[in-house]
Amino acid sequence: AAATAQHECDSDDEIELLRDALARELTSPLGHVTYPRNLTWANYLDFLLCPTLCYEIEYPRKPAINWTSLVSKIVAVFGCIFLLTITSEDFILPVLADAEARLASIATTAAAPSETLLILAETISWLLFPFMLTFLLVFLVIFEYVLGAMAEITRFADRRFYSDWWNSTDWMEFSREWNIPVHAFLRRHVYSASRPFTGRSGATAITFFISAIGHEIVMASITKKLRGYGFVAQMLQLPIVVLQRTRWVRGRRTLNNVFFWWSMIMGLSMMCALYVLL
Question: Which residues form a coiled coil (predicted)?
């Protein structure tokens, strides 16, 4: 009887500890909101407006909106759009239009395959720097100005939307640093959820696979073409990362960073040419 009473007492203690743990889990880190009081339309709308993909019961906030910063970011968005328009109309669209016309003119000739490759190579070379500039401007618009403006409007305290991805030495590092909101979402809901069942390597492969599908859907929506070029390019990053982490290459940060930038500049213009022309 004494043993039974002791067992019941231990069970009650475990239940109490579990209740305390759940209370901490279901209460925001700031301690102001507890589940289910967060289940409101206002909380849902707040989550939609906050520049994050990972839901929390409550987010840290800045004390006030910096109106000067907000206005400067809005102005910067329109300035970048102006530069994007000039770059696209003067240096990208004419090159693509000329390449399309040349490809159409040789479509029925015997030398079509070799001529097609030559036109593609020439088009990619003309697009190298204009498309790299386009990528940098789009990156600035989204991650520095639009997300920054949304953070200012909602007083969202975490403004770290990207890190120094330009110093990346492999594509794994780039994927972690260039888009922190998406990386945090994939890490929480894909990588961490699959790692107990597949291990670290399997979880990484699954995360890259789902991310590659997402990028392919974006490219298909923009170009109205489902080709799979972006999907293949992103999945190829995994064996490249393995190669860069071998003992012959690992630790050579300058060399790996040069290779990263070379593949970035080449890859962007190549993706543009392939999706538009083929």
Answer: none
50 lies in a domain?
A: no
Q: Last residue of some domain: 157, 187, 222?
A: 157
Q: Which residues pair with 61 in a beta bridge?
A: 156
What residues make up the domain containing 80?
63-157
Residue 27's DSSP bridge partners are 34
Compute the distance between CA of residue 219 and CA of residue 275 in angstroms, rounded to an integer. 8
Among 77, 84, 178, smallest CA distance to 133 is for 84
Cα(205)–Cα(194) distance, rounded to whole angstroms? 10
From CA 38, how far away is CA 103, in angstroms rounded? 58
Asked if residues 222 and 230 have their Cβ atoms less than 8 Å apart, the reply is: no
Considering 32, 183, 189, 215, which one is annotated as catalytic?
A: 215
Q: Which of 136, 157, 178 is the last residue of a domain?
A: 157
Whether 215 sits among the annotated catalytic residues: the reply is yes
C-beta atoms surrounding 71 within 10 Å: 12
pTM of the model: 0.83
